[in-house]
Amino acid sequence: MKFSFSYIQKSFSAKLSFYILGVVGFIFILSLLMFYRYTYREIKKDVHQDAEQMLKITNLSIEQVLGEVEKIPENLKTFVIKKDISEAQLFELTRKVICNNKNIYGCAIAFEPYHFSDTQYYFSPYTCRFSDSLLKSIQLGNKDYDYFHMDWYQIPKLLHNSYWSEPYFDEGGGQDMMTTYSVPMYDSLGDFIGIFTADISLGWLNEMVSKMKPYDSSYTFVIGRGGTYIVYPEKERILNESIFSIAKFAQDTMFSRIGQRMVDQESGFEVFENDGEKSHVFFAPIPRIGWSIGMICSNEEIFAELYNTSKILIFVGVAGVLLIFFFSLRIIKNITDPLKYFSLAAKEIAHGKFDEPLPTIKSKDEMLELRNSFEYLQTKIVKYIADLQVATSEKARIESELHIARDIQMGMVPKLFPPYPDRKDVDIFATLTPAREVGGDLFDFFISNEKLYFAIGDVSGKGVPASLLMAVTHSLFRSITLYQSSPEIINFQLNNAISENNDSNMFVTFFAGVLDLQTGILSYSNAGHNPPAFITPDGQVNFMSVQANIPIGVMDEFTFSLQQMTLEKGTTLFFYTDGVTEAENINQELFGDQRLLTALQTKFAQDPKQLISEIEQHIHHHVKDNEQSDDLTMMAIVYRGWQNDTNIS
Questions:
Q1: What CATH number did the domain enclosing 90 receive?
Q2: CA 504/CA 215 separation, integer angstroms
């Protein structure tokens, strides 16, 4: 076959082949350039997003561990401040903290000189993990380990606030590299008496951060408040060198600027020369503790797949264009005819006729592969639709079960309001809005022997586990109040019942109260719950004076305190869970106590339903379109005073 100009003019296949060759060649070159630019930009964008997501997930994991550790000394310090606590009880408390909290490596309760005993200058019960199954308890302070001058003791004492220490190697106690969360303790006169600490070993941090390795040569590091390396691949640099000393040694001003941004708790990314190789560094702060985490990836490794793919595409493209030119003359007609049938079959498949017959292909070439692909597509579509129907049915079943669980849960709390329409001495209204299908908040109330028994609580966590503990707590409260009428005894028995076999380490913040409707005397006992608010008849709004105690389920045999106050006629009590004060807007600003007090200063204080409606409007105005992050529970009780003609319901 001779390729002359006249032949090309007369031959449809030749003209079409040259047209195809020119168009395909132009499209290939243009596509390759666009592909390269677009893919380069998308890879860079994806790498940044993936790095930010990895840093965010790791940061959240770190924040979760730190937050759980912080709660322990904060919640238990009130128990330690008691005057009648013994040395054995202090040691037992530190051991229980370690046993019940896998993230805590060590726990110490360090007292001021001669505070615990007139004969003991140093007194600091301390327990740490000796191994996975053994604990070691010692009296920490002595002349060789003068803890009064340690950062974890001095700084929170001077700041009058809780404090995470910089990492250090604890030679006197845990014999490990760790950081300590210290909570200052004060007696009833406000005098400083000591420090309650929880230690965490940095081994978990190193393990967690080391897993962040998107590429073979990439690595992750963590620096402290002053830039000192806390986690780094070269272990000899940990606690011995800082990001600034490395930058100074390398005379790298860009790396020094990166270190300053990290120390300033900024997040972002930078491109710099890392040992002569262009690299990307991504960094984000760990706000709770003031550290910063960074990840370094080489530019060559990030775009290695793009470079290799581009080479392959060039080779394949050139070869494909040449093949198209040499074989299109003979195969165009053979291709065109069967494609008409495939086109008709594709239309039928698109209309749902998945068993549409396909044309018979005798040749064993691409057309046969195309036919097999169509046939495979028909089979996969049928299977996909069947699987989709099964998945949809399973999803509907799960959603139905969750709806049923929600109905059962909501059926446990009072839902008929007003609950006592014939009574003139009291009016009650309450709402419970779970953050998920089911939640862990609860409230309850009932009247017996002219006394109003009521309670409100918040289970740690969310979802199904929290709802199960909520149901158990609600049932136990009803059972215990059949025989006990004193709130502190109710909390005591409830705590013992839930603490028993509490392998999940969940707990409940709980507030129990008994209001004598004839005298207006309110008896109550708090178990780590938010302090309620009350509105006096003249409109003054204040929080009730409550003793924190520990949450239900933390430690058995704990003695809860009893408190009392006498209510004037027309006083309104407002109870709530932390979902109210911790409601966040898109700027992560909490609703807070002050906004709550402002919202309670309303003309509807004597109408409990309207009062709660007003609070909900204030919360919605603050949160706006931000997703609800926690269960939201409120209960309002208006005490109107004993009436001789009150009907007993």
A1: 3.30.450.20
A2: 37
Joined tokens for residue 523: 């008896």
Torsion angle, CA of 400/406/408/411, rounded to 10 degrees?
A: -140
Ranges in the chain, pLDDT < 70? 1-18, 83, 132, 170-176, 325-343, 345, 348, 351-356, 359, 362-368, 371, 374, 395-411, 437-438, 644-649
Range of 170's domain?
A: 81-201
Omega cis (within 30) before 418: yes
The residue type of 547 is: Q
Q: Which amino acid is at 287?
A: P
Whether 424 contacts 393, CB under 8 Å: no
| Spatial distance between the Cα atoms of 606 and 558, rounded to a whole number of angstroms | 37
Going across the sheet that includes 277-286, the strands are 229-231, 219-223, 291-298, 277-286, 268-274
DSSP, collapsed to helix, strand or coil, labels residue 229 as strand
Both tokens of 610, joined, read 């309207």
Gap between the Cα atoms of 261 and 274, Å rounded: 18
pLDDT at res. 647: 46
What's the order of all strands across the beta sheet hosting 451-459? Answer: 441-448, 451-459, 508-516, 521-527, 563-566
CATH number of the domain encompassing residue 592:
3.60.40.10
- The pTM score is 0.45
Residues 163 and 297 in one domain: no
C-alpha dihedral sign at 49, 50, 56, 60: positive
Residues 192 and 262 both lie in one domain:
no
Strands 632-639 and 277-286, bridge-based pairing: unpaired
Residues 184 and 258 in one domain: no
